[in-house]
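Continuing the batch. This is chain 6 of the set; chains 1 through 5 are on the previous pages. Same settings as before, nothing changed between runs. Recording input and output for traceability.
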Amino acid sequence: MLTLYEHPLSPYAQKNKIALREKNIEFAARLPTGIGTRQSAEEGFLTSSPRLEVPSLLDTKDPTLHVFDSTIILEYLEDRFPEPPLLPLDPFERARARMIEDVMDTHYEPINWGLSEIHNFKRATGELADRLQSQAQQQIRRLQDWLAQQLGDRDWFTGEHFGWADLSVVPYLNGSVGFGLGPDPVSSMGRWLVRANERPSVAQTASEAAAAAAQMSQVADLVKGGHFKRQYRDHRLEWMIRSGGLEIVEDGLRQGNIRFTNFPPPSS
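Output for chain 6:
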């Protein structure tokens, strides 16, 4: 049995859950205790994720088998469970699927994440929030235009079959829909999103995310009180600063409610 340590709202974890479900692989999804506090009582999570990040994958039958990082997990699943394949056979199409995934993980993700900082975690109000919102809206539209070019007139990014690139895009576009920035429903991307969300693997994963989002009403207070720290790693930090939110970072450092990747974690 595989255990996927995850958070339902993490698009990185959503990618892996969709892949597992597309391949009909039995797994248990588990939210690590203490996530967001850099303290976890779960030895399995500590073993599988030395960065203390989700997602990470653990084989409960063989504790020495553990994989972290969502892309590496996708690659591991494709190698270990090749049927049905999520990557096409053509070498360039395989590379293109990976490039689409990289764009979503490093360019699209921090925009949705930044919007969550504003709307859910209340780190900005007034003129600053408006400025960041405007930046995010422009950036998302440009990326959705780029995605439409990648999709072309095909049903799926990877050709005739739903695959690696598709499962890498859908969590982020669903996240944008939640902020009122989804693609035009009658556009090619809008129609693609409807098709993707009709797949059982995507529908179940999206339903789990929606249930978790419904419990987010108190998260701003948790952050303000220092009980939960948001991770400002690489591309997220870059997005916040270049979009005009340097004061948010500075305030988070003063308040001690942001964190950075710490690898390897300090010894206990």
